[in-house]
């Protein structure tokens, strides 16, 4: 799989981990049209080729992502604005459809669309100095990358309303307490913690992890009986896999399994 992007840096770590770095540090990694297009292309590639077992998103420099590039949007015609929103929608939908676990390494300030990327990931770790905001209402707009859907799923409806109505900033500690991130790390320990967790994921059967992700995501859309039916269908898809046979065999032989994703 080839990656040739201008706004994204791509690195493969330990064979199965793909690290995506938002690479516009001169504007705090703000999302412009080019980045939206490249993210969409990247998620399409990952949806088609599932050789990776974990994806990590981070930002270059001292910020994760400042949200949309407002300088690019200055005096933008409404037709162009709406066209760009369509690109953004495709990018976010393909991200949601990614079967591979996606985590964020939040290395600094995260506003607007940057927060929406974090919320659309499966979970996130962040440095203790990071600050966050769902800040769109301060600009006369509103979240447009699933923020109104994912923020209440993370922190509850009433807290989400408070944050989205006010656009107020909040700390890493508050983000942890409210369920927006999963762990706070010292800046020089962030990647140790992120890679530790990513490698744990990579040791597990990738097809099983992907089915778990699908089933967990469906739990937010269905009642428990419908969710249980979906879970059983996902479970049954694993019964004929070589990894299922290897996992049981390795357990009985008292050794670590070697999963191949088949």
Description of the structure:
It is a single chain. The protein is an alpha/beta fold and 262 residues long. The chain folds into two domains: 8-202, 2-enoyl-CoA Hydratase, Chain A, domain 1; 205-252, Lyase 2-enoyl-coa Hydratase, Chain  A, domain 2 (Orthogonal Bundle). It is 48% helix and 16% strand. The chain has helices at residues 33-48, 70-73, 78-96, 113-120, 147-155, 157-166, 172-177, 190-203, 206-218, 224-238, 242-252, and strands at residues 8-13, 17-22, 54-59, 63-65, 102-106, 109-111, 123-127, 131-133, 169-171, 183-185. Strands 1-2-3-5-7-10 form a six-stranded mixed beta sheet, with helices on both faces. It has a four-stranded mixed beta sheet with strand order 4-6-8-9. Strand 2, helix 1 (33-48) and strand 3 form a beta-alpha-beta unit. Helix 1 (33-48) runs parallel beside helix 3, helix 4 (113-120) crosses helix 5 (147-155) and helix 9 runs antiparallel to helix 10. The longest helix has 19 residues, at 78-96. It is globular. The two termini are 19 Å apart. The mean pLDDT is 95.
